[in-house]
Amino acid sequence: MKKQQRNEVKAECASSAKYNTTWKDIDFHKCECKVRKLQVRIAKAHTGKRYNKVKALQHLLVTSFEAKALAVRKVTSNKGKRTAGVDHIKWDTDARKIEAIRSLTRRGYKALPLKRVNIPKANGKTRPLGIPTMKDRAMQALYLMALEPITESEADANSYGFRKFRSTADAIDALHRWLSRDCSPEWILEGDIKGCFD
Fold first, then answer.
1. pTM for this one?
2. 42, 58 in Cβ contact below 8 A?
3. Is residue 38 within 8 Å of residue 55, measured between CB atoms?
4. Which of 74, 93, 95, 155 has the CA that lies 20 to 30 A from 185?
């Protein structure tokens, strides 16, 4: 019993030591290295069909301080950092960012409704856009880090939309290679779903 209490105190001290740091003291390069190592381990375990290890490593990644810090940084450094959700909370100060890292826990978490905004289109119509809260965006970014190694290892080699380290230039290069051969197709058909977001 005493040994268990000592271990709990040690674990609590280790976690609180990390949480007592300020936003400017966080070494994001080290955070990225640790998260990347865990992602590589997840991908290797998945290719080896060791699914229990995959689950354990994903849990380790999602609960790590480094992954939470990177998720908060991603949310607070992109274009939508000044847009709040339905709770009207913005993580615009360093103290709020550190508090946000502490708040990213799975226990008791429930996503809030989306804030609905209509964006005008070029043809005069509007397109509805759902804006999640800052916490919901950070949780999505956190769980994306755990799921990305699996999806990237199983994804089609010829898909370029919304893929990490892939761009439009890569798609153009692939199309050029496919269409410049003698036996390449002569026609390209493009399809669009009318009123997809209605």
1. 0.79
2. yes
3. no
4. 155
- Tokens 């509805």 correspond to what residue? 128
User: What is the spatial distance between Cα 147 and Cα 78, in angstroms, rounded to a whole number?
Assistant: 21
Tokens of 15: 């976690």
Q: Are 94 and 138 in contact (CB under 8 A)?
A: no
Low-confidence ranges of the chain (pLDDT < 50): 1-2, 5-17
116 bridge partner residues: 130
User: 163, 164, 151, 165: which is closest to 43 by C-alpha?
Assistant: 151
CA angle in degrees (0–180, nearest 5) for 44-48-52: 90
CA 40, 41, 42, 46: dihedral to nearest 10 degrees?
A: 100
- Is the distance from CB of 88 to CB of 103 less than 8 angstroms? no
